[in-house]
Every structure is written in structure tokens, then in C-alpha cells.
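for the writeup, i need someone to sanity check this before i put it in the appendix. the sequnce is what the collaborator sent (i think, or maybe the updated version? ugh). structure was predicted straight from it, no edits. if anything looks off just tell me and ill rerun, i have time this weekend
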Amino acid sequence: MGRIRWLLLFSLVLMSCSKKTQVPKAENTGQPVAVPAQTNASPPAETPAAQALATNGAGVKTEMRNVMFHWTPTAAAHLQLISGELKPVGKNDMVVLDDKASFELRVTTGTVSITPQALADILNGFVFAKKDAPLKDLSITIDNSRLILKGKLHSKGDIPFGTAGTLSVNADGRLRVHTEKITALKLPVKGFLGLFGVELANLMHTSNIAGIETDKNDLLLDMGELLPPPRIRGKLTGVRIEKDAIVTMFGDGGKSLPPPREKGSYMVLEGNPVRFGNLVMQQADLTVLDLDPGVTLDWSQDHFREQLVAGYAKITPNFGLRAYVKDYSRLGRPGASTTE
């Protein structure tokens, strides 16, 4: 009965938030009401820039701390500290949590890390999933602060290859993998190929892969394009390799943010419309917290409904919503990874 009561209360509050603003009725002054002149002219077609401006005002402010954000059951990024907003993309006029392609996370400042295994899963299952992709069966590891990339050159008859390199941020905000070593068929080839003017760019034809380019013997990665929806975009200002993670910094890395709003792990969404299910919050006031405040909030955009149902919610005095959710990895779903 307790769970039924809070679900009913939860629905009533959100439905009250979703009521459309009523247009005030005109006063009866006895004077004729002016009617706009009708025209048969078709409205001018919106340019792509105009369409972008139409959705730029609907961003939902967000702050996230200690969140494991899943794209797939096995691939997730650790949002250590994030401040920015969720922005509708495409033809969407609001953030729709049920549709992860309807919005993207635009980071102003913060720190995000991803394990090499998770990055390899994304590259194999999303970036290089097409039959004509130039690379296949990728694996990524870290060795002495270097990124080790191995796989098959699919465009060259599935020749096994390997590269070792360091990471830096390019002037345009992309990640640069500076290649120090290249092997093919387990033989060193960088120096040999260099004698004939052949570079990594000649081996890896990436022109048809959004988000990845070759610059001589270096790889340039646009993480905002490489990662699947919901995409994470922002100005990268730094990168470092830790024991088992690639750590990226946006802005000042979150140093300018005020103290945490809540204890433990959480996500906050504020302002402008957010829709999930059949419910709409016209002015978002939603805080998502972990049932266990001492662990990382393990969040799956594909299974957040199950996480909500497994937890409970409270209504704030200002009719905001505080949702306490169960970690995705604790839902008992096959393939779900365990967070830290």
C-alpha cells in the first residue's frame, strides 16, 4: 500500500507540472475583437541554423557527481564531476528521457573517465560495427602510461596490427593519440614504412568514420562523435592516463563548482521541460539519488524505469521530485557490470 500511495502522489505531482498554461480570456468590453489578417503565403522554410536556435533555449541544467553512465550493459563512463546541461537535439523540443537520442549532455566543466575496455566495446559495437569498417576486433589496454591498441586491418585483409602511443588534447579539442610504435603481423613496421613514405593514414582509411581521423601517424578522436547517444560534448582541456582509465577534463575540471548539493552520488536536473513516460515536468526539478549513498550511482538510460520502480520517491515542499533509485548493476540483469 505504501508504494501505491507514493506512486499515485508522484503521478499527481508530475501531471500538475505538465498542465499547459491557460490563455487568459479577453474581457467583454463591447468592442470588436481584432482578428489577424489571413494570408495564403507559405511560411519561409527554416534554415538549419534557425532550427538549431529553436531548440537551444530548451536546455535543462544538470549537475552530476560520481555517476557511472551506461551506454550499453558493459560500456559506461564515470562522470566523476559534471556541470552543464541536457540539450534537445534534432527535431525534439524537449529532453525525453525515454529516448536517449533526443538529447545530449553538454559539459561546461567537469571530469569524465572511461576504462580502455569500455572504450573498446564502444569502438567494436558502435563505431566500427559496419561490414566495411577499416578496423575490427579492437582491444585497448594501458601500459606504462601508453595506450596500446590492437586489432585487425579489415581493409587490408584482416592483417593483425598494433599501435602504442600517448594521449594529448589537440588544439581543436579532439584527443590526439600520438603513435610511437606500429606493428603488423607482430613485426615493427613504422620505421620500415617510413622509408617508403607510407604512414598510418595509408593503412587506416577512416574517411567514412565520423569522429576519427588520421594525421600522418597519429589518430584524432572526437569523443562527442565517437560515443553513442546520449552524446557527451564539451571543450576538452586536458587528458591523462591512470592505472586503468582514460581521464578527460572539461573547462577547469570542476574546480570552480560549489560544494556538493547532496551527500553521496546524485544527478540534478533543473529548469525547462523534461518528459519521461506519459509525464512532463514543465520546469524540471528532479534529483536522482542512489539508494546506497556510499557507492557510485550506476545509471542506465535504457533501464532507468526499472531503477525508479525498484526505489522510491519523495515530493519536496516546492513540488520537486527526489527519486531514490536502485543501481543498474543490482537489478539482477544479465550482462550488467559491477560499479566501484
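The radius of gyration is 24 Å. Residues 271 and 284 are 5 Å apart (CA to CA).
thx in advance!!
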